[in-house]
Design a protein that fits this description.
The chain contains six helices and five strands, in the order H-E-H-E-H-H-H-E-H-E-E. The protein starts with 16 loop residues before the first helix and ends in an 8-residue tail after the last strand. The model has no long low-confidence stretch (mean pLDDT 96). A hairpin with a 4-residue loop joins strand 4 and strand 5. Helices cover 38% and strands 13% of the residues. With 191 residues, the protein is an alpha/beta fold.
Amino acid sequence: MNKTGRFQGINDEPLNATGRAQAQAVASALEEGLPFHLYASPVHRAMETAQTVADKLDVPLTQKKGLEEADIGELEGLTGPEMRERYPDFVKRWTEDAGVAQMPGGESLSQVQERAWKAITELIAKHTDETVVVVTHNFTLQTIVSKVLEMPLRNSRRLRQDLGSITCVEFTDSRTTLLSLNETWHLRSLD
């Protein structure tokens, strides 16, 4: 769906050949970070990516609710022009403040952030001083990074998250630090 410019939220579309190659590249990139705990959104494409990592690196995989992509409701499967034609009021609200604009029949980014941050804080509490790898989605990750940076969600769309990219955040008792954003060096050989 990404290839054809169609929006996807929580659908169960599997990875295509490019997505599977990206998952292999992510697994290779994560190898030097072993040992780590591996969690993934229950959405099929995230689980498929995480299973590739788990299989290649012999790491147990746990599904984690709250890490799902935004439920984009009626926007599922639409292209940008189709969305603008069918939902001009939503597009206007989204342009004004993407953080509070509720997707038709779906969630707002504020709702995504609330559930995703809850999942992240649960993982932090469970794995103090351990490395955790989370396989999640574009909107979800943008809301998490926005929270880390204490950045208003209306600005979250300024954060670029390429497919198969890696973002690193460090959580300590005293502070939370964004170490890297949208790393894609491991994907260069796929071009």
